[in-house]
Amino acid sequence: MEYSFITHPIPPVYDKDSRILILGSFPSVKSREAMFFYGHPRNRFWQVVASVFGEDVPMTVPDRKAFLLRNHIAAWDVIASCRIKGSSDASITDVTPNDLRPILETARIGRIYVNGKTAEKMFLRYTEPLIGEKCVCLPSTSPANAAWNIEKLVKAWERIREAL
Predict the structure, then answer these.
(1) I need a surface site. Which of 2, 43, 71, 80 has the fewest CB within 10 A?
(2) Which residues are paired to 74 by β-bridges?
(3) Residue 157 class from Cβ within 10 Å (0-12 exposed, 13-18 middle, 19+ buried)?
């Protein structure tokens, strides 16, 4: 598989009532195909956040968008464009960060969370210097993070409610 230069195709999800901002690194091939966040069927993001908020797992893009807004969650990714090989976070180079200011100027975000170590590394390198805000790193919901089962992920992710 070759490297491709890709511009992030998915717009952020947020409104004025968003209190939590969750950032991934960059959308996977499956997410880019679905045109929405965490589109790979084995990614546990939707299962985890649904459990945290005591709701059924949203299955469609409209249901997922409604779930995020209903629970005061804004979602996007740290990276606006990059060179990447498939969906491999480890292959990411030539990064341009997303501009989070429209979200931060519209919503009263109480806390910024990043989904996994790559998102944290990219946030610390590119985003924190621009916005002067810290992030809290949560364990990745990616299937590649096999060390964390669903129960451990839910327990760790329950802290996102602190910002409400």
Answers:
(1) 2
(2) 21
(3) buried
How large is the C-alpha radius of gyration of the chain?
A: 15
pLDDT digits (tens, 9 = 90+) for 33-81: 999 999 999 999 999 999 999 999 999 999 999 999 999 999 999 999 9
Dihedrals phi, psi of 128, to nearest 5 degrees: -55, -45
State whether residue 131 is helix, strand or coil.
helix
- Number of residues that make up the chain: 164
CB atoms within 10 A of CB 113: 21
State pTM to two decimals.
Answer: 0.96
Rama region for 25: left / alpha / beta (φ>0; ψ in -120 to 50; rest): alpha
Residue spans of the domains in the chain: they are: 3-163
